[in-house]
Structures are given as structure tokens and as C-alpha cells.
Specification:
single chain; 111 residues
Length: 111
């Protein structure tokens, strides 16, 4: 479940980062702040079962890759073939961190 919290936090991060850029009304800003709070709540829950360094690395890496893809596909950000190469490096790093994280600590609730 701890990895699920990290994944949820990364997905929610996309919404609050977009909100930081495009929010104009009080309602939009309220939604952005709620997304920030919810995202960090899930990070805190994940840190209860996984090492905080691992959680942070996976959260920021996967969130950054996802936000870049959202920028390219939805907001017509510039694209070069170098971009997917570096996204691939981020994904490889995230998978590598997950594979080398002590799953015993996850199961016991320790860090």
C-alpha cells in the first residue's frame, strides 16, 4: 500500500503543478491548495512504511516525468528526441530505486 501512496501523490502532483501555473479564480486556487495538501498527505503516509529518501526520489522523479509529458501532450511544450531519452532515465531510476528498496521494511511498517 505504501507504493500506492507514492503513486497517488505523484498523480495528484500533476494537478497541483498545473494549478500553480493556470489558476486564476479563488475556486481554482482552492483546488490547487487542496491538491498540494492531499499530495503531501500521501507522501507522509508512504514515509511511514518506506525510507523517506526512496519516497522522495520516486515521487519527484515520476512526478517530473509525468508533468513533462502533460506539458508536451496537453500544453504543446517544445519537444525534442532528447526529452524521451531523459524521461527514460528518470523511469529507469525510479524502477531501480523501487527494486532495491527493502520490502521487509515495507511489510513491517518500519523505515
Amino acid at each position: 500500500m505504501a507504493w500506492g501512496y507514492v503513486a497517488l501523490a505523484a498523480v495528484i502532483e500533476i494537478f497541483w503543478v498545473v494549478g500553480l501555473r493556470y489558476s486564476e479564480t479563488v475556486m481554482q486556487w482552492t483546488g490547487t491548495v487542496m491538491a498540494i495538501v492531499l499530495s503531501f498527505y500521501f507522501i507522509i503516509k508512504a514515509c511511514e512504511r518506506l525510507p523517506s529518501g526512496t519516497v522522495y526520489a520516486v515521487f519527484t522523479g515520476s512526478g517530473a516525468a509525468a508533468i513533462l509529458l502533460v506539458d508536451i501532450f496537453f500544453f504543446q511544450a517544445g519537444f525534442t528526441w532528447v526529452t524521451p531519452t531523459f524521461i527514460g532515465f528518470i523511469v529507469i531510476g525510479v524502477v531501480g530505486i523501487k527494486l532495491t528498496t527493502d520490502e521487509k521494511a515495507d511489510a513491517e511498517g518500519g523505515g
